[in-house]
User: Which sequence fits this backbone?
């Protein structure tokens, strides 16, 4: 067994530290070590997007990031999307549109869509579809997900106007 | 007791109510099986066959067993006391190979489990798997079902060299006469390719054996927790009352979790052996190799008709790719295809012969639609081909052959009784929505410009709400318990096991309306055999149509009991129950639900012939299946340069009976269409000639992405089902069943100027590009 590495990082705005093996994925560290199970494993090879988090603002699949790489970084997971006790506009839009069914891909979609709307407040439909093409959903046919992101974008633009 | 004006509450059934499941799902707070962490829990990884067929010449676990962190390794010789993986379906002459939970001396498909390593974490468990030394004696394998039964293929199971798992024959009417009288006969070989269900959550099991009580709790992502409990108890030799199955939050199933898998029993076995909890989470690669696949048909259809378009009869030779074993329902699935063969049409002469073919592949079984998409694809393709052959519009030929409204309940050629229908209604509505004549004019113009535009129609029917018990291997009823606390809060426990379908919401809507109480006073529980009465589960579009009906009848009983307490408390014989209270029709005095329920528990005084407490359990046996139907229209255009099929518009008009929650129903249809579209355009499980799965991960298997699915424009007609009191028919599979023939009909329509008559799925751009090139050459 390899010795463990001490990692200091920031997760959802809070300083966190943990021990991990050099070979452990960030996904595993989040879920098993830190108990942040909102981030899901769908494939463990970067193809489904269920484990999407942001690291220093960049969208990453946390199954393809090593835990040690999180050192000094700022990581945001689905647990950090809500604004305090109030739901994020994306979460509200997902709720209002029923943009989910089984929910296992939803945390990844929320994190990815949030990164999109932070970077581009007014994406068109094709842009949203393209941005979310790294996230697979088998339940919804994406229809309501796209509508929910469009609705949240409108709302967020309105709030910032 | 107060006298109040009764305010009429607005019904919630039929409203777009937000899903009560969603708050936990959008915050990451839900607990799926992989989120369960028990104290002292170990992790398991499984060594699997890399070969389609091989003898295990030598198996040495010593290096793995000695690896630091590994606590146990088990192989086929350790599991001798464990029963085989069950096949729940029976057919005359069915050959059932013994399906042990770990391979004995031989493996039959890539992914076949050979040994399990148990370790302190999953990384070490996987290291342990790599340290097992196996000497394989590789054997020839077969992966193509037609080749498998051609007579000269390697035997999948040496005891049955012909690779035939079963024959199934069904014949009704006079087929030979029908074909003798025919003025036109169209024949076509149509395949429904192997598909990989790809629930976004893979399978997973946490097994916890309480050594003091000798009781096993199995957390598993399963659509059928009670059936799993019964069968796992039998496999492991445990008393069923000391076996508990919990289906936690589930990340989809689509039929792939309607099963009893080797790994579920294996984890139970491991937990019993080591006396500690153990977790196994299927990797995506394992999911593709070892969770059931769907479809896998080669169908030879023949349709006989008159020149005026009247269909006289149909023949089908169906070759079903079984895989190496039967899983729970494997051989039953193609028999559903046969039942569904007449589609929405009234012809009465049918002959079908099914051959089940063993291959060195993972077993096929129920995947969204399960036998019905294959049949619908066949009949809807054949009707279109017939129309083209006699120069008739595809709409006209359908209208000519539909079962007429006055013929319901309608006895089909295959022995079903269609409950209710108005088959022309969704078609006419869809034609109106798309402006069919306008589209045909556009198509004419497009063709003049050399563009390849297609309009494809499918009018599908399906068998839903599985089903009457005599027609379902393990019983087709469903159960519901309604219990009201002394404080008046209501708990519903359903024997169905929704896993994304939103029935916590729809069942709460039904309950709120029946009891006249707010949604917030209702809690719905499913998926735990220690809490919920025995149930069948969620599959075959049965959750609401059977489980919801069971709930409805339980609610009537509980209302009647409440009313007896109400009459006692109001000291009147003339009371009625409404709006969450009982009212005395003479005085207008009322008692609340909480007062009635409270009185039933305190039981100081009982109404005549009435027991204390306020809890009712109902088991409901449906008298028939339900038969939803609809019309889908796909408008496509093909890129002449690349062969890519572009879906310009997609319309779905479905008749699923009454609708409890349109928000949920829309989502079910969208997702269903996306899976049908996936089959039509993108998806195929490909095994090579050595029975290696070529499409073994998401990189190679094309699950549709957000960029690959169009907006789905949908509408409904409503023909209530008389089979259940809710008038619902079921919606889970409709989209999938309606979609693939609409898509293929559309693409063939686009390619018609090139003389193309049929295209098999998936209609990838490469396949279409080759067709374009050969047609232009």
Assistant:
């Amino acid at each position: 067994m390899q010795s463990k590495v001490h990692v200091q990082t920031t997760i959802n705005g809070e300083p966190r530290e943990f021990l991990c093996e050099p070979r452990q994925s960030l996904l595993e560290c989040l879920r098993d070590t830190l108990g942040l199970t909102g981030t899901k494993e769908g494939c463990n090879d970067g193809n489904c997007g269920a484990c999407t988090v942001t690291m220093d603002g960049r969208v990453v699949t946390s199954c393809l990031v090593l835990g040690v790489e999180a050192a000094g970084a700022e990581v945001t997971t689905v647990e950090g999307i809500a604004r305090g006790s109030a739901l994020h506009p994306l979460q509200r839009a997902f709720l209002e549109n029923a943009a989910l069914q089984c929910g296992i891909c939803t945390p990844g979609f929320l994190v990815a869509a949030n990164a999109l709307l932070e970077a581009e407040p007014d994406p068109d439909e094709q842009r949203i579809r393209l941005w979310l093409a790294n996230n697979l959903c088998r339940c919804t046919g994406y229809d309501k997900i796209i509508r929910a992101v469009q609705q949240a974008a409108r709302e967020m633009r309105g709030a910032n106007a | 007791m107060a006298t109040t004006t009764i305010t009429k509450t607005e019904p919630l059934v039929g409203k777009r109510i937000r899903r009560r499941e969603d708050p936990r799902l959008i915050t990451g707070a839900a607990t799926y099986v992989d989120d369960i962490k028990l104290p002292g829990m170990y992790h398991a990884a499984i060594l699997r066959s890399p070969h389609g067929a091989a003898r295990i010449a030598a198996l040495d676990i010593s290096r793995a067993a000695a690896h630091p962190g590994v606590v146990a390794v088990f192989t086929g010789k350790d599991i001798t006391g464990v029963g085989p993986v069950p096949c729940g379906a029976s057919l005359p002459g069915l050959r059932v190979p013994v399906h042990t939970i770990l391979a004995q001396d031989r493996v039959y498909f890539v992914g076949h489990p050979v040994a399990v390593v148990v370790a302190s974490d999953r990384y070490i468990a996987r290291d342990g798997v790599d340290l097992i030394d196996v000497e394989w004696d590789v054997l020839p394998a077969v992966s193509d079902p037609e080749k498998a039964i051609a007579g000269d293929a390697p035997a999948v199971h040496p005891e049955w060299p012909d690779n035939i798992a079963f024959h199934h024959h069904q014949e009704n009417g006079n087929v030979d006469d029908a074909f003798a009288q025919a003025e036109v006969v169209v024949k076509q070989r149509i395949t429904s390719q192997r598909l990989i269900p790809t629930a976004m959550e893979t399978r997973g099991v946490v097994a916890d054996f309480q050594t003091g009580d000798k009781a096993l709790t199995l957390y598993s992502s399963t659509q059928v927790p009670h059936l799993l409990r019964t069968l796992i108890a039998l496999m492991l030799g445990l008393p069923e009352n000391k076996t508990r199955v919990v289906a936690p939050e589930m990340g989809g199933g689509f039929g792939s979790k309607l099963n009893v898998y080797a790994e579920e029993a294996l984890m139970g076995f491991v937990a019993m052996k080591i006396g500690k909890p153990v977790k196994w989470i299927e990797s995506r690669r394992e999911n593709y190799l070892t969770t059931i696949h769907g479809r896998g048909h080669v169908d030879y259809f023949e349709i006989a008709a008159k020149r005026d378009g009247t269909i006289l009869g149909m023949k089908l030779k169906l070759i079903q790719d079984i895989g190496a074993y039967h899983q729970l329902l494997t051989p039953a699935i193609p028999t559903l295809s046969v039942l569904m063969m007449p589609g929405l049409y009234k012809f009465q002469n049918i002959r079908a012969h099914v051959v089940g073919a063993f291959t060195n592949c993972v077993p096929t079984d129920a995947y969204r639609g399960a036998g019905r998409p294959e049949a619908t694809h066949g009949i809807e393709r054949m009707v279109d081909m017939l129309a083209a052959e006699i120069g008739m519009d595809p709409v006209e030929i359908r209208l000519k052959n539909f079962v007429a409204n006055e013929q319901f309940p309608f006895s089909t050629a295959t022995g079903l009784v269609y409950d209710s229908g108005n088959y022309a209604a969704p078609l006419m509505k869809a034609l109106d929505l798309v402006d069919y004549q306008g589209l045909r004019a556009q198509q004419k113009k497009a063709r003049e410009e050399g563009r390849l535009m297609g309009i494809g129609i499918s009018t599908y029917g399906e068998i839903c709400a599985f089903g009457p018990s005599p027609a379902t291997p393990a019983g087709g009823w469903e159960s519901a318990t309604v219990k009201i606390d002394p404080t008046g809060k209501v708990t519903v426990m359903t024997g169905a096991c929704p896993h994304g379908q939103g029935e916590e919401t729809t069942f709460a809507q039904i309950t709120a309306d029946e009891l006249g109480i707010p949604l917030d006073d209702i809690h719905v529980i499913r998926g735990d055999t220690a809490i919920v009465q025995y149930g069948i589960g969620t599959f075959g579009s049965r959750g609401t149509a059977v489980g919801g009906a069971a709930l409805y009848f339980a609610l009537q009983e509980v209302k009647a009991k409440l009313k007896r307490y109400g009459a006692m408390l109001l000291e009147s014989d003339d009371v009625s129950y409404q709006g969450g209270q009982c009212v005395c029709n003479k005085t207008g005095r009322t008692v609340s639900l909480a007062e009635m329920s409270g009185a039933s528990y305190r039981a100081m005084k009982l109404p005549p012939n009435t027991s204390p407490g306020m809890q009712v359990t109902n088991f409901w046996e449906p008298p028939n299946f339900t038969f939803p139907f609809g019309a889908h229209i796909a408008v496509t255009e093909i890129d002449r340069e690349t062969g890519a099929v572009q879906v310009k518009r997609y319309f779905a008009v479905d008749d699923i009976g009454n609708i409890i929650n349109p928000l949920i129903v829309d989502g079910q249809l969208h997702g269903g269409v996306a899976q049908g579209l996936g089959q039509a355009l993108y998806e195929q499980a490909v095994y090579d000639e050595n029975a290696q799965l070529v499409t073994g991960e998401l990189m190679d298997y094309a699950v549709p992405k957000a960029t690959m699915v169009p907006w789905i424009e949908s509408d409904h007609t409503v023909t209530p089902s008389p089979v259940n009191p809710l008038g619902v028919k079921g919606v889970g599979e409709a989209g999938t069943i309606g979609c693939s023939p609409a898509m293929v009909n559309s693409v063939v329509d686009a390619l018609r100027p090139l003389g193309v008559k049929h295209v098999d799925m998936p209609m990838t751009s490469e396949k279409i590009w080759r067709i374009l090139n050969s047609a232009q050459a």
About this structure: Chain A has two domains: 5-80, 89-160.
